[in-house]
Specification:
- By secondary structure, the chain is mostly helical.
- It has 13 helices and five strands.
- The chain has a three-stranded parallel beta sheet with strand order 1-2-3.
- Strand 4, helix 8 and strand 5 form a beta-alpha-beta unit.
- Helix 9 packs antiparallel against helix 12.
- The longest helix has 30 residues.
- The chain starts with a strand and ends in a 6-residue tail after the last helix.
């Protein structure tokens, strides 16, 4: 295995991941575990930056972890854990908070976007500072590369700045991480509004396909997905965004080029195309759903796997925090 380390995380804020999560992130995580020292966490500390029902959060954390294993993450090949099981995340976040300028934190675009919904006065301090916790997540594991999309690039730049600032002030301590840009990642849009990405926070229920969704429901949503004027199955983001989004899903799940799909469905119309796309989506998600349900049926085994992952994560995290505490000047406990 390569010495290069990658880290990524996903929030347990829904009862199922959606197709955009799977194609945009989780499927790449599965392939990365073969060639990297990979750490993946369910980021429940990030989840509580907005109000959560405790029992629901606990259940969704297990469901999220089960889906990661169900999608193909192998605990023998990568480290999968729950963020709150490793207290060093919060510990390092505080240290990094004390190195972060208020103006610097204020410029984080995602806080502005998220706080606009309820107003900045209603937003928590945790929501404001969560990019610093995200930096701690990354730096704690001496991460070489972080799989990022465009929406997270600014946060990675903050992470790099904080690592360099700490290293300059206190001596070499952190690996300065770089982005892992996954080429040809399918950016999946809302089925009802292809102008926005598929998202639990902004999409309507009819615009999202869930990984754990019932096949009949998946077929119905694809049948009702927004298409465009005419009946030609052709990729064109400007003129035919709805059909282009469906073609992108088909191509991503089958590995078939969009041009080849256009030829295949030439003259066929939307009905035949949508029916076969529904078959593709159902067939791709069925084994993940079945494995996830099996994992959730044995809660003790799932918790054991997460405890093992947390123990491995704490070995690395604890070593990093020992160095950080020493460099900052904290008195060692005897």
């Amino acid at each position: 295995m390569s010495a290069n380390r990658v880290l990524s995380g996903i929030q347990p804020t829904a009862d199922s991941f959606h197709l955009g999560n799977y194609l945009g992130a989780i499927r790449q995580w599965v392939s990365l575990q073969d060639s990297y020292d990979a750490f993946y966490c369910v980021v429940d500390l990030h989840a509580i930056t907005v109000p959560q029902d405790p029992a629901v959060l606990r259940r969704r954390t297990r469901v999220a972890a089960a889906q990661l294993f169900g999608a193909g993450l192998d605990p023998k090949q990568c480290t999968v854990f729950v963020q709150s099981h490793v207290p060093e995340h919060a510990e390092l976040s505080w240290v990094l908070s004390c190195l972060t300028g208020f103006g610097e934190a204020s410029r984080m675009i995602q806080f502005k976007d998220k706080s606009q919904k309820s107003g900045a006065d209603q937003a928590s301090v945790g929501l404001f500072t969560y990019p610093i916790l995200q930096a701690a997540d990354i730096l704690l594991y001496q991460t070489d590369q972080v799989p990022v999309g465009e929406d997270q690039r600014q946060h990675l730049e903050l992470t790099r700045d904080l690592a360099q600032r700490f290293n300059h002030r206190f001596g070499p301590t952190f690996v300065v991480p770089g982005p892992y840009i996954v080429k040809d990642v399918a950016k999946i849009a809302d089925l009802q509004d292809p102008a926005i990405k598929m998202s639990k926070s902004s999409s309507s229920p009819q615009g999202i396909i869930d990984v754990l969704e019932d096949p009949a429901s998946i077929r119905k949503k694809i049948a009702r997905a927004v298409t465009d004027m005419g009946s030609e199955v052709r990729a064109d983001d400007e003129a035919k965004p709805g059909v282009t989004n469906l073609l992108r899903i088909y191509a991503a799940l089958t590995g078939t080029g969009m041009g080849e799909l256009e030829q295949r469905y030439e003259g066929a119309g939307y009905g035949a195309f949508k029916k076969e796309l529904a078959d593709v989506v159902v067939d791709a998600l069925a084994p993940i759903r079945e494995r996830t349900e099996k994992m959730l049926a044995d809660e003790a085994e799932l918790d054991r796997l997460l405890a093992d992952g947390a123990a491995r994560a704490r070995e690395v995290a604890g070593s990093t925090m020992t160095k950080v505490s020493d460099r900052v000047g904290f008195l060692r406990a005897r």
